[in-house]
Amino acid sequence: MERFSTSNRQMTTRKLYGLKRVNIANFPHLHSRSASNLSYLMAKECGLSDREAADVRLGAYLHDLGKIAISPKIINKPGPLNKNEWQDIFMHPSIPLYILIQLFRFVFGHFVRLIDSYFYPSH
């Protein structure tokens, strides 16, 4: 994100924070907000710049984004989870990467091709 202008960076950050509000049942908003604030404070304590600490804060806020693919019945289950439910929970950290890969394929797949590690428009 280094090449983003400050206004593009701020707009993107606002949109990413907004993602978590799409399905409140799957996202413990208070937990995410607390994790992001604590992460920011720890990053500053470790000597990171304001911009770096803000990136840490955003990452912490989105750390449970993969729960979008987990059934709310599992997320909100009042009792202990069974083995299959735990397997679903353990998958949530990898789900955002899968989403990004699919999005990348969708957006770029129809008009670019990879040649010698560079992207060129397809003909």
Would you write up a description of this structure?
The chain is mainly α and 123 residues long. It has one domain (6-92). The protein is 57% helix and 7% strand. It has six helices and two strands, in the order H-H-H-H-H-H-E-E. It has helices at 6-19, 29-45, 50-61, 72-75, 83-91, 95-108, and strands at residues 112-115, 118-121. A two-stranded antiparallel sheet has the order 1-2. Strand 1 and strand 2 form a beta hairpin. Helix 2 (29-45) runs antiparallel to helix 3 (50-61). The longest helix is centred in the first third of the chain and has 17 residues, at 29-45. It is flat. The mean pLDDT is 77.
Strand proportion, as a percent range, falls in 5-15%
**What's the gyration radius in Å?**
18 Å
What do the pLDDT scores average to? 77
**Any idea what the shape is?**
flat
* Widest sheet: strand ordering: 1-2
Indicate how many domains the architecture comprises. Answer: 1
Number of helices: 6
Helix percentage: 55-70%
Described by strand count, sense and barrel closure, the largest sheet is: 2 strands, antiparallel
Care to count the β-strands?
Answer: 2
The class by helix and strand makeup works out as mainly alpha
SSE arrangement, N to C: HHHHHHEE
| Regions with little confidence, pLDDT below 50 for 5+ residues | none
The span between the termini is 29 Å
What is the structure about, briefly put?
By secondary structure, the chain is mainly α. The chain has helices at residues 6-19, 29-45, 50-61, 72-75, 83-91, 95-108; strands spanning 112-115, 118-121. Helix 2 packs antiparallel against helix 3.
